[in-house]
Amino acid sequence: MPELIAVATRSATENANAELVQAMNVAFDKHDAAAMYAHASDDLVESDQTRDKDTTGAKRIRDGTAQLFAAIPDAKRAPCATKDQMCWTGYNGSSRLSDLVAADQFVVSLGVFEGKRISLPYAELFQIEGGAVKRIWRFSSRP
Known about the structure:
CATH topology: Nuclear Transport Factor 2, Chain: A
Helix content: 25-40%
Number of domains: 1
Shape: globular
CATH architecture: Roll
Distance between the termini: 29 Å
Mean pLDDT: 83
Number of helices: 3
Radius of gyration: 15 Å
């Protein structure tokens, strides 16, 4: 992949991209896999650094997320700022988007994946083109 530099300009597009990722996070907490990937491109690629291979295709990723919800029925995403103070505050000064930062076509989301049996800090990088999520990179430790 060629070197890429993304500079945040606080544009309307960046704000819309951050809102899209925030909506995905809210849908995750509601265990609504369909809503999570409603704005994903059909050829979405998810790269989870704890897996050997990427997952390709919005339907396949959506189905896998539904399986995750079935396996961990109390799964939630908690903002990392409530767990510790390692996160920065606010995209455009909004506490509602306290763990999102957008720059150009990219959004970073930080948090803690939680359930009764798991607490896993994570960082996700989303690439969004034309209002559609094209790629997700996920970084976390293995539980």
